[in-house]
Amino acid sequence: MKTLRNFNNPQLKGICTSLILCNILLWTINQILQLVGSHDTRLTDTSVKTTSEELRRKQDPQGSIIPDDLTFVDNRWKLSNLCKPYKTFSNDSKFPLIRYTSNAGSVKIFTHSLGDGISSIISRAGAFEVKTINRVLYELQKDKNINLIDIGTNVGQHCIAAALIGRDVIAMDAAESNIEHVCASANYLNLGSRITLIHNILSDSNGKRKFRYSASKSDYGSIHVDSDGIWEKMKKQYNTYFSLKTVEENSVTLDDLFLIPQIHKFKKVFIKIDVEGHEHRVLLGAKEFFKRLEVQGIVMEWAWHVKRQSSEIIKTLMAEWKFKPYKFFSTTESDLSSVHSDKWPQDVLWLPI
User: Which three-class secondary structure string do you get for the chain?
Assistant: First the structure.
């Protein structure tokens, strides 16, 4: 490539001026250089199509920082307007302020009422699945430029912890109530400038997807997209926990994130994904995402993929993108490549080869 670029030398151009063949050669080299540049698909300021400032929330008149909250509807991004100042929920029994503790520190966050399984565990133990939260923090702290993509954020444990250590986060969830809770916590903790919230199902295409809530509509632990046979698997384990009816929610892909201005902060990312057996669909909608961003690793819930075809889809994609699976501990990991995936643990860490 250095040899090609030397054709820009003024002296060499002078020699070639009168030679038609040399002019043709210079033109050809220029086309080659442009072609090479066009295949550099890493995220740059000019490679990402962004929308206007309409996708950024205006600051609260009282100076309170509320996260940008977006949704993808009818093939375009817009503000969801789910976020409200935390004081809106000060006396709301569905928004208790509970102590939450991780390696990022001990703070109070807004959880669901304690009839919700995850919120109840946070209230009793300080966190739900704290081992996974702390491993995500460990991965983020390897490089100050790594930011977090939190898919299936629930009440925001991972994204709040990441923001507390100074990282930017895009956090996504299909449930309106989860988005409202994370927003209230971010506002309360003055972390609103670091967190962008997205209210959508993450999947492999845009449009509508069937989503199933709990029968009580007050427990948000295993709510899920009803596709690819996951409902049959869920029924066997939870029986009467879920509503028999589904509702339609709008879906979006990870590749669609290149259309929002906030993505410019996310050149290096770590991904946490916990969407109750829909992880394979999320990855199928992320092919450009993995080409254009530097994905440093993924923590993924695996349990719902045991003995499902989705496990093969995930393993194929991860191999194509050159990631290996690991069982993880606080700061170490063991290779799972030689272990049958039906024997893998609840959560799996994928790291670049």
Answer: CHHHHHHHCHHHHHHHCCCHHHHHHHHHHHHHHHHHHHCCCCCCCCCCCCCCHHHCCCCCCCCCCCCEEEEEECCEEEECCCCCCHHHHCCCCCCCEEEEEECCEEEEEECCCCCCHHHHHHHHHCCCCHHHHHHHHHHHCCCCCEEEEEECCCCCHHHHHHHHCCCCEEEEECCHHHHHHHHHHHHHCCCHHHEEEEECEECCCCEEEEEECECCCCCCCCCEECCCCHHHHHHHHHCCCECCCCEEEEEECHHHHHHCHHHHHCCEEEEEECCCCCHHHHHHCCHHHHHHCEEEEEEEECHHHCCCCHHHHHHHHHHHCCEEEEEECCCCEEECCCCCHHHCCCEEEEEEC
